[in-house]
Amino acid sequence: MLDARTASRGQDEMEDVLATQLLQLSQLIRKARQQWLRERPDVPIGMVSILKLIDEIGTGTGGCCHAKDLAERSGLDPSTVSRAVAAAVGQGLVERRVDRADRRASALALTPRGHELLAAAGVWFGALIERALADWPATDVERVSGDLARFSAALSGVLETHQQDAAR
Length: 168
Known about the structure:
By secondary structure, this protein is mainly alpha-helical. The protein has helices spanning 4-39, 45-58, 67-74, 78-90, 112-132, 138-167; strands spanning 94-98, 106-110. The chain is built from 6 helices and 2 strands, in the order H-H-H-H-E-E-H-H. It starts with a helix and ends with a helix.
């Protein structure tokens, strides 16, 4: 039977293993982003992230969102979001519209070109994931997907709490 110290040590070791795996995963994600940029030098992957957020946030509000919503959801500061939005507008991927609820504010929406780019990125990343998981049984893919979603939600909650504590 395991005593509390042994169990704690085992938990610490698993956390170390998981931390190492997460670092390796972040490196692989960085490599995927670099590959995307080699194939699509005109569109930084961060731009795709902004487009995805605009699309997600805007779904329930007439297809539009506000820059402050982007900053909040992305965890980026408003000036960074402002620069990214300006670049997306400049490339014809996003348009500014007058907000129907507050005519003084502008709302952001994807243009048809922005939707096309977002779809192309989805296909590109989907194919990458499909190739990586080609030999995996469907049950393993489902389990990892569920576990990853659960872990992401837990980590997001911890980070939000940490951010709120730091702001106090």
